[in-house]
Amino acid sequence: MRRILTTIATTLLVIACSDGQSGMTDYPTVDGDKRVEQISRKPFYKTNPESRPPSAELTSEEYRLEFSGWGKDEPRFTLAFPEAKHRRVILEYTMGSEGEGPADYDYTTMLFVKDKSSGEWRELVRAITPFGGMFDAAWEKRFYLDISEYDALLQGDVEFCYYYGGFDATAERAHSFKLRFLLYDGEPQRELLGIVNLYDSYNHGNSGYRGWAYGVEGHDIEAAERLGERTVMLPDEAGEVELRLSITGHGHDMGTFPDKTNYEPQNMAEFVENSYTFRVDGVEQAAEGRIFYSNADNYVQMGTYNYDRANWAPGNPVNVQYWRVLRTSNEALSIDIDLPRFESSFDSPNAEGVAQYIVQADLFIYRR
User: Fold this and answer.
1) Can you tell me the distance from the alpha carbon of 139 to that of 137, in angstroms, rounded to the nearest whole number?
2) H or E segment to which residue 269 belongs
3) Which one of 13, 49, 204, 339 is most buried, counting C-beta atoms within 10 A?
4) pTM (2 d.p.)
């Protein structure tokens, strides 16, 4: 992939003096191709991972899911959080229904929180609705997500918005969701200096569904303005750097991987296993991310609920992945995510069924 440099200024949430330690060189010595490590962390839980009662909690209304895309204004709401730091924040995300039961199909839902320091929207949750035709009005399913790294954004009056990519709501049936934030007292384990949005197909997508088309000539996801290289200017006091990546595959493209012999993908990108790699400061990394998810333990519903998919399962939050990026100097940090070369069977990025990935990536910078 061609490397074109894009520089991102870091939005600092906490700014403090460097205590005369600017230029410190106590970074680890690490091989140039081993600077990315995957963090073993569950994307969600089926029961609350915290056994102690929360120090505070707040609950949203139940929101009916109807199509909001292609320039439509996303629905917004505001919740009032206490002005206090928390050691842990657990979000209870409830999938439910309105009317006679949930709607029929598995569509993408995205929940965002507004970063008041920068004005940017950060993705808290991406979830896929279930095939709901067999469920009644009483049906609901709860999931628990650890969103502690976003605690600094959940202070005072906080604005949220959400997107739903489905057309299946009717007067009789519709999907819904509801939120309950469980806040646990205590000092955070690490001091967050800032959050940088590296990749954002939600606001810059070209597929019509908040994603980036894959392998369409002239519109490919690997273009510099999509998954190109990003360079982040980090403060001297920065220590650990972690990446939160949501990448889910959609579409039923019958294109080809020209560099893979005797391999014909069927229904790319939803049902095809794929992978991604990193370049850090121009060096290709040994680590590889997997874009596939086993649905073997998914709960019974209608449709193809038990087929493995590209990092998601119908009726569940998506398979968010976490990475640690090791710094070796005080210099700027550049990151590039690469996908294997693919040639789409379509010539338009928003053709029905085109292979695409919805990508959101936030970089979290902690004080050393």
Assistant:
1) 6
2) strand 268-269
3) 339
4) 0.92
